[in-house]
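Pair request: fold both.
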Amino acid sequence: MSSPRRIYSIDIFRGMTIALMIIVNTPGNWGHVYSPLLHAKWHGCTPTDLVFPFFLFLVGSSMRFAFVKWHYFPSKKFYEHIFWRSFSIFVAGIILNAFPFIRQAWDWSDFRIMGVLQRISLAYGLSALMIIRFDFKQMLQILTGILLFYWALLWLGSKQGPFEIESNFVRTFDILILGESHLYRGFGIPFDPEGILSTIPSVGTVIIGYLMGGMLHTTKNYNDCVKRMFIFGFGLIIIGYLWGFIFPINKALWTSSYVLFTGGIATIFLSLLTYLIDIKHFKKSFWVFEVFGTNSIFIFILSGLWVKTIINIKRELNGEMTSAYNYLYKTIFVPFAGDVNGSLLFAISHVIFFWLILFWMFRKKIQIKL
């Protein structure tokens, strides 16, 4: 098999995305967070709403280079590889949802089935099955078909408020397949932002990343490639923004306009990093993020396990029992920086903590792949 070459700008982009993910996922207190570090309540897009599509975009970008070893040929070994990788990531997501495995009388009747890793697993697997069989032009046509199909599906699937939280077809479909008790409840009602149906357009995010990875992989002139990527990304943003007037930009529904809007931003960001790193050779300026660009799924799992662990450890604070998570925030970060800045500093401290773990693994050349 041929060894895939790596593109440093993709690794750096991945590292930046992981660092931002940790910041938005681990504030000291959710009631004291700067607004850009929160998800949009429903329609709209904040910097936090870019984290997940950026990661899926990078999954697609990396696939272009990873599939070199398969010579872009759909062999039996390729399908086995895709199946087992998708399966392992999905199972890891199930385990993360179940942790710390404390269920009263082992009652799993309200266990959430889907999640971030489950979506990555499905989006990766479905994209791979298409990418290995179709060329760039065909993948662009498939992307267009997916986004138009999803728009029609949501529009025709609900007679009242097709893009509202209570009545959208995504919620109806997931309730039918998974049941209300197995959905996320963070919106106040059973609705899963990483549900089954909304995984379909997330495949489109992976495809956009793959197309951009293909441009980098086949280019003979980085200057020209960066210009084409920037123009393409800007075009996606404009189309996504305009489409958003009739099909709102919405992360929870992963609307088609959201796919194009965030995919365009990701494309421009990758083009800028490629310009700085591969053309201007500012590689050393980004070395910190190179570390975060390794073992990305592992650190997502580790950070999730860590947070769930310290939430379930109880400590006494001012005569009352609280979680070790809140205890650390209240006793160390609030006295030092106040409520809001202490909450941000708490998150940044976790970025440093996990970076040190990854740096040790990086130095030891330890790679944990799912």
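--- second member of the pair ---
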Amino acid sequence: MSESIEIISWNVNGIRAVANKKALKWVDERRPDILCLQEIKAGASQFPNALFDTDFAELTINSGERKGYSGTAVFSHLIPHGTDYCLDIDTRHEGRIIQHTYDDFILFNVYFPNGQKDEERLRYKLEFYDKFLDHCDTLRDAGHSIVICGDVNTAHREIDLKHPKANAKTSGFLPEERAWIDKLIAHGYIDTFRYVHGDVEEEYTWWSYRFSARTKNVGWRIDYFFISDDLAEYLEDAFILQEIEGSDHCPVGIKLAL
């Protein structure tokens, strides 16, 4: 008999800020099997203790070298067989990847780079994209199923942001960034939200803190779950939890029957 596994991903934009707002208390009601966080902006010694009451079996933190910047964390009720931080991809040691190997799939929690700072940073983002896809393809060639979640920092299609024309030359919606998501899908990875919900519009995961953007729903869908296509038959649901506040992003998730 198969069981449903719920995995939720959230860019918290600072785990200590989220803790101060008690913005993770919803986890006690929801009780996801795996919770992936990005942009934690804290080292392991700075990680808050009272995020929620739920006791996860495993906590993995990849905080990177630069203090107060980037970083990822995974809370899991499932014990992984192995963990990797993929430092050959995250060459600047910014704590951007946690790779967990489970019985039925390999899970990637990824905080992809933002390319808006300058051209050099955009190049790094695109190099990171390509190295990451090569790594996933190597694992697939070895027979593994793949789940990818996190802040990809790119809206894929015009329906994935409120003002596509105005942002056509903005990093996060550049043709070369969007083309990488096309490539990811062409390599056999499924955008789970689109797979389940089709071309539904105005479903965003990030809003600027300025100009009451969230209240007006002037947002971008830049947080994703991708799965290798061999897992498509096990995908029960994909969702965006826009009602959960505490960050400029909201959580996204999937349910798999495995």
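Observation on the second member. Helices lie at 15-20, 26-30, 119-141, 175-186, 192-197, 213-216.
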